[in-house]
Design a protein that fits this description.
The protein is of the alpha/beta class and 284 residues long. It has 11 helices and 7 strands. Helix content is 37%, strand content 14%. It has a 7-stranded mixed sheet with strand order 3-2-1-4-5-7-6, covered by helices on one side. β1 (59-63), α4 (69-76) and β2 form a beta-alpha-beta unit. The radius of gyration is 19 Å and the shape is globular. The mean pLDDT is 88.
Length: 284
């Protein structure tokens, strides 16, 4: 906004001395179980108007599964061929432990691997991803890779891509830094110098600080993809849209929901008000 030096000293007044992420992660691990997994899945499915396909015969791939909540919930609902992958071994170990505790290890498998390393010969009826797509490197390539491992079989309900992600970087809180500050500052990553924000992060974000000099290089990684870019990448795949809901969290406030839908129709504004995306696509 005012240059990296002034932005730094201005924002320095509002940072926390200690970021709560590690403590919250440990709390999530303690609370994780089949009940919490089902609650998260129900919330996700409800935002997609309960259209996530459940079929014991289908093969599911959960990309960036984290601690495995979505995979566990699918298995609990009777899906017998569920694979969850994540490149973080810490998350995978937690997911495996939860699967054993819930006695679902015969229905769901967890593997520590990068999505781009999934063998070409492995095909899936449904590829799903939750709270990941704003973090992946090369999102366009990621969508193409998904297309390459999808089965056909649309008549049987297969060949689905289910995505839920956000907040997008250019939306009000898409920088993922607001818990780092004493109060929420909208469009922080858009309005203020990235150098200033990264300097503050290196100096004050504890106990999970790193030496990142850009949003892309942080531990969580942010690809800065705009909503309009996402729509263009999907259009390039040729997928058919079955469901696309933007900002469904606003449905509880009808006036805000209507305003959001209005702003999303304006090309120059949509990238700055598209916070979260919930979508189901299928191959043509």
């Amino acid at each position: 906004m005012f240059g990296k030096t002034i932005d730094y000293w201005l924002l320095r007044l509002f940072v926390h001395d200690r970021h709560p992420e590690t403590e919250e992660l440990r709390q999530l691990e303690r609370n994780l179980g089949i009940e919490s997994a089902e609650a998260r899945f129900e919330k996700w499915n409800r935002r997609l108007d309960n259209k996530i396909p459940i079929d014991p015969a289908m093969r599911y791939l959960d990309v960036g599964c984290g601690m495995g909540e979505m995979s566990l919930a699918l298995a609990q609902r009777g899906c017998r061929h569920v694979t969850g992958i994540d490149k973080d071994p810490y998350y995978i170990e937690i997911a495996k432990r939860c699967a054993r505790q819930a006695q679902l290890q015969d229905k769901v498998a967890f593997e520590c691997m990068n999505f781009h390393d999934v063998p070409n010969e492995q095909k899936y009826d449904v590829v799903l991803s939750h709270e990941l797509f704003e973090h992946v490197e090369r999102p366009r390539d990621c969508l193409r890779r998904i297309d390459g491992i999808l089965k056909s079989g649309i008549a049987e309900g297969g060949g689905r891509i289910i995505l839920a992600f956000g907040p997008l970087f250019h939306s009000p809180f898409g920088d993922h830094l607001n818990r780092f500050f004493r109060f929420r500052i909208p469009w922080l990553g858009v309005l203020f110098s990235e150098d200033a924000l990264m300097r503050l992060r290196r100096e004050f974000w504890r106990p999970v600080a790193d030496e990142a000099e850009s949003f892309e290089d942080t531990r969580e990684g942010l690809n800065k993809m705009k909503f309009s870019e996402f729509l263009r990448y999907v259009a390039e795949t040729g997928w058919i849209t079955e469901q696309l809901i933007v900002n469904p969290q606003l449905k509880r406030w009808p006036a805000l929901w209507r305003l959001s839908n209005l702003l999303l129709r304006v090309p120059l504004l949509r990238d700055y008000f598209a916070v979260s995306v919930y979508a189901i696509y299928r191959r043509p």
